[in-house]
């Protein structure tokens, strides 16, 4: 494992320092073979020791950085010297602590490079704005997080003259037919869709897009560790780190993972979307997140194990449950064929209660009578979080758009936690269900 110690007042030198994930030429991240365990890839990522030899890295909280020679600043602004050689200008541009978290994210997703941002939406917005210009066109899945859908439907056309056609990504002919030669630049979709948990056939979608010269951008927020879109052909992977990767429901953050050329272009002093729009991650946040990523694999396995067990039991009770780990789910075979081994099928499940009234009644009992979980948006927390998607996280969509996306009024999205014992939590669920039916 490559390691590096930073000593006060010195610039690192030597061969081991060429593995920065954002480099002027390219990144020399060890190649991640298709199918390699993401935990193994993380273990091979460079470990940054603290300034005085601490096992944890130091937090570089400085907004600006000094140089030893006057000419060095000119060379940094001209692009001759950069973070690949430990030369930093300003923390909106590059920050060493944020860069370390970015290396971890690149290792996790098996990409050349990555950079972390202040939110998931800023990562999505910046990536698409870097890849598209005025007059360009995007093809996107019709089933997306409500905020992303609003960005593509309303904000981009109004402010940037970037338009989007929404398609059923399971229909490859429909995807292909929506591509406008010379105008369409990006195919965008979620690996596992929010909130209906449909699974994207990433290799096939990449084949269709790449045949027409498109860049494939995949939101993998719902499936870190479970799926590795870049290994399946995707060009760019975006994340809301606020969810499973953070795991504490206490941090808002995002990431763009992809080729070093793209990430470098996003940080360009004159044309970079991240540099110029400024969705900068606080280095103290980056430090906290870098300490949580090593546990992500263990957490995801338990999220997924419990989700599958709950979904199986709910189905036996006759409930209308949606979970891609169930053999009856229409995308079960696809997910099984492209998922990483041993991580399961995702930490979310959906219960379709038919009406919003029934959905709300169930959630009320689950939280306020039996303490099964909490009514809250977001996901990836150690407690179970529940929301009625149609009136919350997908409320930006109109009735027709929700119907096309398969979001019923009574759809309850559950992010399955791992606190307490499985049997304890299941007993709480059964009690709530019994009271609802009584």
UniProtKB/TrEMBL annotation:
GO molecular function: carbon-sulfur lyase activity; pyridoxal phosphate binding
Cofactor(s) recorded in Swiss-Prot or TrEMBL: pyridoxal 5'-phosphate
InterPro entries (UniProt xref): Cys/Met-Metab_PyrdxlP-dep_enz (IPR000277), PyrdxlP-dep_Trfase (IPR015424), PyrdxlP-dep_Trfase_major (IPR015421), PyrdxlP-dep_Trfase_small (IPR015422)
Name of the protein: Methionine gamma-lyase
PANTHER family in the record: CYSTATHIONINE GAMMA-LYASE, TRANS-SULFURATION ENZYME FAMILY MEMBER
Superkingdom field: Eukaryota
GO cellular component, one term: cytoplasm
Organism expressing this protein natively: Vitis vinifera (Grape)
Disordered: annotated span: 1-20
